[in-house]
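Weekly structure sync, notes
Attendees: PL (lead), two postdocs, one rotation student
Agenda item 3: pending single-chain targets
PL asked that the sequence for the first pending target be pasted directly into the notes so everyone works from the same version. It is reproduced below exactly as submitted, 229 residues in total.
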Amino acid sequence: MNNYIVATIKDWNINQYNYRVQKYPGKWFIFDNKKDLTIENLRRIGPKYVFFPHWSWIVPESILNEFNCVCFHMTDVPYGRGGSPLQNLIVRGHQETKLTALKMAKELDAGPVYLKKELSLTGSASEIFKRSSSLTFDMIEHIVEHEPSPVQQKGEVTEFPRRTPEQSQLMPGVDLEGFYNTVRMLDAETYPRAYLKLGNLKLEFTAVSKFGIELEATVKIFEEDNKHD
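Predicted structure, written out during the meeting:
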């Protein structure tokens, strides 16, 4: 019996893990804390694959060299290598993308590809991540059952810059579509919300919906010096 590890910190992936992997072949382990990911722990388990859906830290090269590490990137690589793929896709006007399962390498998002699946970019970031999570575990199941050989990436490389929290600010002159996209693409846990500044007031927007030529959203207003989460 083969052993497998899923390393993830996001609730939507942890929920998928708990619901899905008992139906998969082999013995499964989840690492949902950065401290768990040590080469000693991996050697103790001896996994055939280590899957990294939405992992937030650089994986040490020693682990990449010793184990089959698979990550999931929300672009049709080599287009869109790099940080903040969802937000970078939306601000560039993409309505859909491909979720790519690739073998992790020292260079970020540059490893060979196991498989790709179509992914819609409609809805809020939270909805997209949940949709992506379900698709991710479909892909994990496929890799475990079929053990495809990864294929080197081909084509022109386009790299995305990682967005900063300051880029979440809605600037004067933004149009309705730009406002809608900025709010929805940041509406997920741990992401800096889209916001406006009015003097010492900060307005954070979530749950945006489009109704013809109007938008509705939830707004949280607070004085920046007195924010309470």
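Discussion points:
- The first strand starts at residue 3 and ends at 7.
- The chain has two domains: 3-160, 165-226.
Action: rotation student to compare against the earlier draft before next sync.
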